[in-house]
């Protein structure tokens, strides 16, 4: 195990972590506005990737048209989910709403591969396969560009919270009743949050689809995204950035160092272990607000 | 007319405290029991092994999960892992030569210990975070089972379970395993029914409604949550042993994946949170609806000549689970049990519309 291999794992891991973080930024966005953890975020990423595949391959649009188109469609789908499913859960126990998003996850996971075929779909976003060689480490070009796009989107969403609409959303996340009383349309803000997080999911889905192909396994991004969201603090988008890099690094290093010893599979363990450890030591995450009721 | 009464009136505390208060309900329970006892003698072995046996086993599992989710209000998305622990623990115990009766209890205890150890850590948080902690538990248990050869016998291996004898009766034959599984199912059902009217059950209900309100009136909410985890995990472990010895007879890690946990949660929600009858309904619907739908789609594809792809048919069960969870949560959050209850209430005073309650 030499230093350059470790460095290579670390650099690629950080970019992978950025791409995971894009999925969990959507979870955080919804949690911040409505207090519901969206367990369907992985399936939304998968659906978005399938949408881009429909546009790019079935209809034959160039990818720079198909991907934004898919994002626009997914914005609508996200807003519709809020209007026709989540809004009816208001007043029900929180767990009902979470179960509803889980039902959505399961349904989408059956629906999209069922209709479009379960074989792995290729999507080409025009990034050459040749790695970038930097000194004596290799950087995967897809991961690099994907990581940078994800980083840009997350930073954009941090900036978004300073815009007028962003301030509205912060008000909604702070106190829904108080926002109502000063004339903020709370439902609309939550619907926009769902739409935006579906757009983020679509971007992440397309980027991941470009690296590993599009099939149902894209919805497994959910577990990593949850780990990042919990580690970063469920209501903090900057936390997602930090936690994303941490999870990506740990996962990449675990694959490189532990896997040869125990024979593979530690990649999937990292996310679960991070969830459990975070909940034990610091349930509100690195940057989250401390408001979890302890028993 | 069917129940021969207009409203429910009790003339003694004793009659009000009975498990089934109406004579008609008692008759119905006896009738269902008789049908369940006679069925294996009447129906084909294929239906017994393919439908009846798994239905009773999964209903028992749903009862265990419902005890935790509906009874104590704690979400558990890793119940499949609990069942896996029970199955592997009892199978290994039996392979060491421990008699089946003890091996089964050992499986239950192993599940209860691991389940409540995770519960104790996870119970520091609740609601949403508890859901995620149990989700994480599922994948950690999966990982440990697959990657420790002493448990699973290697990554892709299946573990053969030695033939079981219960009190000297050989359980390798299907009809006998069915009766044994039914016996365990009845015991668990009676236990859960009776917990509902004990102080334990009332404490759990208080914790479910609001844990700090329960603490205010002197219910130690952490202790009762942990007890609920213990009991529910114990039932899960027993179900695991039943699965290993009476149904699968050879177990492998992929029988207990996250998909199983999701199915169990779907059973509980579709059947009705906190309803004992609902567990049976939910298990039946989640088990049989995909099969029926698949056959219907297959028949439709043949008769209409439409090409329905194998991919779609393979994904129909998932689609259906998800749609059923969503549909029930949106339209009837209390599940099939509530629908049954509505019908029963209607028939209770039929032909009149309202009953004095």
Automatic annotation (TrEMBL), chain A:
It is found in: Cell membrane. The keyword Calcium does not apply. It comes from the Bacteria. It is a multi-pass membrane protein. One of its GO terms (biological process) is amino acid transport. It holds the Pfam family BPD_transp_2. Its main location: membrane. One of its GO terms (molecular function) is transmembrane transporter activity. The chain crosses the membrane at residues 6-29, 61-81, 93-112, 143-161, 189-210. Keywords: Amino-acid transport, Cell membrane, Membrane, Transmembrane, Transmembrane helix, Transport. GO terms for cellular component: plasma membrane. InterPro entries: ABC_transp_permease, BCAA_transport_permease. Belongs to the binding-protein-dependent transport system permease family. LivHM subfamily. This is Amino acid/amide ABC transporter membrane protein 1 (HAAT family). It comes from Bradyrhizobium sacchari.
TrEMBL record, chain B:
Keywords: Cell membrane, Membrane, Transmembrane, Transmembrane helix. The keyword Chaperone does not apply. It is a multi-pass membrane protein. InterPro entries: ABC_transp_permease, LivM-like. The keyword Cell membrane applies. The chain crosses the membrane at residues 24-43, 49-69, 76-96, 102-123, 135-157, 177-195, 227-250, 262-289, 296-312, 318-337. Pfam families: BPD_transp_2. Its main location: membrane. GO terms for molecular function: branched-chain amino acid transmembrane transporter activity. It comes from the Bacteria. It is found in: Cell membrane. GO terms for cellular component: plasma membrane. This is Amino acid/amide ABC transporter membrane protein 2 (HAAT family).
């Amino acid at each position: 195990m030499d230093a350059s291999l470790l460095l290579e794992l670390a650099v690629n891991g950080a970019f992978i972590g950025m791409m995971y973080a894009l999925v969990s930024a959507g979870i955080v966005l919804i949690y911040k506005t409505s207090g519901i953890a969206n367990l369907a975020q992985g399936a939304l990423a998968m659906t978005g990737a399938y949408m881009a595949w429909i546009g790019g391959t079935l209809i034959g649009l160039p990818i720079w048209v198909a991907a934004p188109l898919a994002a626009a469609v997914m914005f609508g789908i996200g807003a519709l989910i809020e209007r026709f499913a989540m809004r009816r859960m208001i007043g029900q126990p929180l767990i009902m709403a979470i179960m509803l998003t889980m039902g959505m996850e399961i349904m989408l996971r059956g629906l999209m591969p069922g209709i479009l075929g379960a074989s792995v779909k290729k999507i080409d976003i025009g990034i050459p396969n040749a790695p970038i060689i930097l000194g004596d480490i290799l950087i995967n070009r897809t991961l690099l560009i994907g990581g940078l796009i994800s980083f840009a989107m997350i930073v954009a969403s941090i900036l978004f919270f300073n815009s007028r609409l962003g301030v509205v959303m912060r008000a909604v996340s702070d106190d829904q009743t108080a926002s109502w009383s000063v004339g903020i349309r709370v439902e609309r803000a939550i619907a926009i949050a769902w739409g935006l997080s579906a757009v983020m999911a679509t971007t992440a889905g397309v980027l991941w689809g470009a690296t590993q192909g599009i099939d149902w396994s894209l919805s497994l991004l959910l577990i990593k995204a949850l780990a990042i969201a919990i580690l970063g603090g469920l209501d903090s988008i900057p936390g997602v950035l930090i936690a994303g890099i941490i999870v990506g690094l740990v996962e990449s290093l675990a694959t490189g160092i532990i896997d040869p010893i125990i024979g593979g599979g530690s990649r999937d363990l990292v996310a679960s272990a991070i969830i459990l450890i975070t909940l034990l030591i610091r349930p509100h995450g690195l940057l989250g607000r401390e408001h979890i009721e302890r028993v | 007319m069917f129940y021969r009464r207009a409203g429910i009136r009790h003339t003694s505390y004793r009659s009000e405290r009975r498990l089934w208060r109406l004579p008609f309900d008692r008759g119905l329970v006896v009738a269902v029991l008789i049908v369940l006892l006679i069925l294996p003698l009447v129906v084909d072995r294929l239906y017994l092994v393919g439908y009846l046996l798994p239905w009773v086993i999964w209903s028992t599992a749903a009862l265990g999960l419902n005890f935790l989710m509906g009874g104590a209000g704690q979400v558990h998305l890793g119940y499949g892992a609990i069942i896996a622990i029970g199955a592997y623990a009892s199978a290994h115990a039996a392979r060491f030569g421990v008699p089946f009766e003890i091996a089964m209890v050992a499986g239950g205890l192993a599940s209860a210990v691991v389940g409540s150890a995770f519960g104790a850590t996870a119970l520091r948080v609740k609601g949403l975070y508890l859901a995620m902690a149990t989700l994480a538990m599922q994948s950690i248990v999966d990982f440990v089972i697959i990657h420790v050869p002493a448990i699973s016998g290697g990554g892709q291996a299946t573990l053969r379970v030695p033939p079981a004898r219960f009190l000297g009766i050989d359980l390798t034959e299907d009809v006998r395993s069915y009766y044994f599984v039914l016996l365990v199912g009845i015991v668990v059902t009676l236990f859960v029914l009776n917990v509902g009217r004990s102080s334990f059950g009332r404490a759990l209900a208080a914790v479910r409604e609001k844990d700090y309100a329960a603490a205010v009136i002197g219910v130690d909410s952490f202790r009762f949550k942990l007890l609920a985890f213990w009991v529910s995990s114990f039932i899960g472990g027993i179900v695991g042993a039943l699965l290993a010895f009476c149904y699968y007879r050879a177990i492998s890690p992929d029988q207990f994946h996250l998909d199983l946990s999701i199915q169990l949660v779907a059973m509980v929600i579709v059947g009705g949170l906190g309803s004992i009858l609902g567990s049976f309904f939910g298990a039946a619907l989640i088990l049989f609806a995909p099969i029926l739908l698949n056959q219907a789609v297959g028949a439709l594809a043949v008769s209409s000549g439409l090409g329905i792809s194998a991919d779609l048919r393979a994904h129909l069960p998932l689609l259906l689970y998800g749609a059923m969870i969503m549909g029930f949560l949106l339209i009837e959050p209390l599940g099939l049990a509530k629908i049954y209850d509505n019908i029963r209430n209607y028939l209770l005073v039929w032909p009149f519309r309202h009953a004095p309650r």
